[in-house]
C-alpha cells in the first residue's frame, strides 16, 4: 500500500452548543481522525444533516478525551460531509486531521 501524502489539519469552530456544524472531506482522503480540542468536552457526529444539533439517530458520540478514526475502507474514499455538535457551555473546536 502506498504511503499517504502529508496530513491536512482542519479546525472547525463550533460557537454554540447543540448547533450543527459541517465540514467537507474531499474524495481521495484515506484516513481521518476527529477530536474536540478541549479534552473535557464530548461531541456528536453524523454523516447526514439534521442529526447532531438535537441528537437523532443515527448519531455517533465522541466521548470527552476520545477521538474517532475513519479509514477509506469504511466509506470508499468518496466525498464525505461530517456534521458535528457539542453541548458545552463555551465555544469548542473540532480538530480533524486527514491524509490523502
What can you tell me about this protein's structure?
- This protein is mostly beta strands and 100 residues long.
- The model has no long low-confidence stretch (mean pLDDT 92).
- The chain has one domain.
- The longest helix has 4 residues, at 72-75.
- It contains one helix and eight strands; from the N terminus they run ββββββαββ.
- The chain has one helix at residues 72-75; strands spanning 8-14, 21-25, 31-36, 43-46, 60-62, 67-71, 80-86, 92-99.
Question: How is this structure best summarized?
Answer:
With 100 residues, the protein is mainly beta. It has one domain (14-94).
Low-confidence stretches: none
Question: What is the mean pLDDT?
Answer: 92
Distance between the termini: 13 Å
Helical proportion, percent range: under 10%
Number of helices: 1
Q: Proportion of β residues?
A: over 45%
Give the strand order of the largest sheet, numbering strands 1, 2, ... along the chain.
Answer: 1-8-3-6
Specify the biggest β-sheet.
4 strands, antiparallel
Alpha-beta content class: mainly beta
Mass-distribution shape: globular
What is the number of E strands? 8
- In N-to-C order, the SSE pattern is EEEEEEHEE
Number of domains: 1
Report the radius of gyration as a whole number of Å. Answer: 13 Å
Amino acid at each position: 500500500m502506498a504511503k499517504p501524502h502529508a496530513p491536512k489539519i482542519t479546525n472547525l469552530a463550533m460557537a454554540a452548543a447543540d448547533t450543527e456544524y459541517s465540514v467537507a472531506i474531499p474524495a481521495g482522503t484515506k484516513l481521518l481522525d476527529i477530536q474536540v480540542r478541549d479534552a473535557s468536552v464530548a461531541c456528536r457526529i453524523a454523516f447526514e444533516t439534521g442529526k447532531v444539533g438535537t441528537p437523532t439517530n443515527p448519531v455517533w458520540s465522541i466521548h470527552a478525551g476520545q477521538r474517532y478514526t475513519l479509514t477509506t475502507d469504511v466509506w470508499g474514499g468518496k466525498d464525505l460531509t461530517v456534521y458535528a455538535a457539542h453541548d458545552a457551555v463555551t465555544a469548542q473546536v473540532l480538530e480533524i486531521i486527514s491524509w490523502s
